[in-house]
Amino acid sequence: MSELIAYIAPQNVLPALSDCLLILNSSNSHLNVVQSDENEVVQRHYALQMPVQRLVFPPAHCHWLIASLSHEAQPAVRTLHPHLVVVADGLCSNHADLARSVDIGIASSLSELIEAMLLAHLNRGASLLEAINLCNEQLTGDVSYICHQQEQAQYMFAVCLGRPLFVGLESGLRQICCSSLRLIRQRANQVYAMNSGDVVRFGLGAPARILSNGTEQILPMPAVNKSQSIPHYMLEEIEAQPETLAILVQKYAAGFSLPLALRGKLAGIRAVTLLACGSSYHAALVASYWFETLAGLPVQVGLSSEYTDRDCQPDAYDLVIAISQSGETADTIAALQHSQIKGAPRTVALTNSPGSTLTTLVDHILLTHSGAEQSVSATKSLTAQLLMLYVLAFSLGEARGKLTKEQVVAAQQEMLALPTAVAETLQLNKDIRRWAGLLHRKKNLFVIGRNTHYPVAMEGAFKLREVAYLHAVAFPSGELKHGPITLVNEELPVIVCLPWNLQAQKMLDDLKAVRANRGEIFILSNGNIASVEGTSVVRMPSGLTHLSPIIYTVALQMLAYYCAVLSGNDIDAPRNLAKTKTAALA
Length: 586
Ligand code: BG6
What we know:
This protein is an alpha/beta fold. It has three domains: about 5-225, Glutamine Phosphoribosylpyrophosphate, subunit 1, domain 1; about 235-425, Glucose-6-phosphate isomerase like protein, domain 1 (Rossmann fold, 3-Layer(aba) Sandwich), CATH 3.40.50.10490; about 425-565, Glucose-6-phosphate isomerase like protein, domain 1 (Rossmann fold, 3-Layer(aba) Sandwich). About 35% of the residues lie in helices and about 20% in strands. The chain is built from 18 helices and 23 strands. The strands form four sheets. Strands 3-2-4-1-9-8-10 form a seven-stranded antiparallel sheet, covered by helices on one side. The chain has a six-stranded antiparallel sheet with strand order 5-6-7-11-12-13. A five-stranded parallel sheet has the order 15-14-16-17-18, sandwiched between helices. Helix 9 packs antiparallel against helix 16 and helix 13 runs antiparallel to helix 14. The structure holds 6-O-phosphono-beta-D-glucopyranose (BG6).
């Protein structure tokens, strides 16, 4: 995936671009810039050194530019249309059909495709805004683009169709639009996070959202709190979750926009198999409860690295879903292929990486639309996986007649409440930092939960191991009495995910044994539980039922993060781990 950065200002914006590259310090090593150069539009390519050095650009009066930063060199400099420049990122699922419709090769880049589509509409007499709206109606997938037309030199248009984009005001009348929350927070004084479907005009004057009927709305642009600079990608990605989830909620809460071909198959599905590893495996485990409860389907969850040695027998009505943030994890690719060899009839890739290997092997692709995830730890991509699996589960429930209309509406309503609940959970960071102060030096930790919150506990323990290097183990709380309780004493704290639901009383009973053995208890709960000696409670937001695992996951991400910070660990690149590289898009 690429990072997009666009600048427009009365003064030369190249030095600002150079500053951006230092802030991003991204491992993407190819920078393509389309820029104004005196009265010309030129395109330049730079191969970046690692670690990123300050780039010295040729002297120019460049008052607008659109740059993309990616892992792979873009195809040789394309012929630029002198009046219209488009730089795009994402995956367009009907790319080939659209390319044929505008008579360009199907191997054309997404930027070239959108440019050709806009030009086709412009040539038929449409204004740029009309062309953008028409083009947006045709594009399906997960796309964002920024465009500039010479006739309106003082403006640019940013379009968000799934892939996150932010618009910001900098000092000196500079306006920036980019895909990185870290960058915008550091560079801009005021920021607007674009919603999916937004068309925003920025440049001279106040940035405005342009509605499809041409009406302009000046953007609400809250000031950035500069004292809250983001020291690590992991924190940035944890904090981005209200926005990344809001993008998905918008896409799916009103009228399901699951790919049509997949929607057509849902009614005939009789079983679900989920394949994944690491954090994606925990998402699969949480979702297995949803597929049972909301869709009434039997579910198997396979750990990718184990699955290839199993003699699985998918039947003709099975839906196999391979889940992988990167779409490149070798174990998950092998597990999917194993299921296909064994006859899996319908396969889905759920990934954050359009164009990844996994997406080339399946019948259907579901994207998590979370933007590039730089930290090795999966955070925003994981909660997006959870949300997409929830959408799939209740869509299956609806298609199979398991859910009533009212239940489907309630499921959608719950989605609408999610981004706010996640934002409220992030507000608990002070309490969680206090816990981290008490926990980060412990030798061993238990994390427990029941039902959907048992895999959440697994994910929490996994994160505590992965970034905080703590020996944390997860158990279903009902299992404590069947062995693990022998290890509990004043040296072994127990972290508890305790949503106030049907399992809450059982969990409180399970905890009596922990206190009886002098184990210290740290409870995350929306219930009215008091902190007393030996029991510390952090009050979680209320109002979610099925989606509650997502906010508990976020709370545990923060706990692992702050424990890692206090231990002085390398947060974004934990020892012995590397993030699977995502194949860059054409
Ligand atoms: C591991 C990472 O190597 O891969 C985990 O340490 C990650 O954080 C796991 O969850 C699976 O990755 P993916 O890309 O297949 O979801």
